[in-house]
């Protein structure tokens, strides 16, 4: 019985498993934090692009030779 206890105390297989579990949990936690930061910025950028595109007017020109193009609310 004493030999079994000494061998059990020296065995490190379980410790390696615990290390991997802790490392995996840390990676998942950091990924979740990064996702939340990126998601907020991407949503704001998409809103800005949507606003700009909704304000744009696209013209293909007319029969008098006027050029077409894209104009926004603040430009001529």
Describe this structure in words.
There is one protein chain. The protein is mainly α. It contains two helices and two strands, in the order ααββ. The radius of gyration is 31 Å and the shape is rod-shaped.
Features:
2 helices, single chain, 68% helix, two-stranded antiparallel ribbon, mainly alpha
Summarize the topology.
Layout: H1 2-10, H2 13-55, E1 57-59, E2 69-71
Antiparallel strand pairs: 1-2
Question: How would you concisely characterize the structure shown here?
Answer:
With 76 residues, the protein is mostly helical. It has helices at 2-10, 13-55; strands at 57-59, 69-71.
Radius of gyration: 31 Å
The poorly predicted ranges are none
Query: Approximately what portion of the residues adopt beta-strand conformation?
Result: 5-15%
Rounded mean pLDDT score: 84
In percent, how helical is the residue content?
55-70%
Strand order of the largest sheet: 1-2
Major β-sheet annotation: 2 strands, antiparallel
Spell the H/E element sequence.
Answer: HHEE
| Secondary structural class | mainly alpha
The global form is: rod-shaped
Number of strands: 2
The number of helical runs is: 2
The N- and C-terminal alpha carbons lie at a distance of: 91 Å
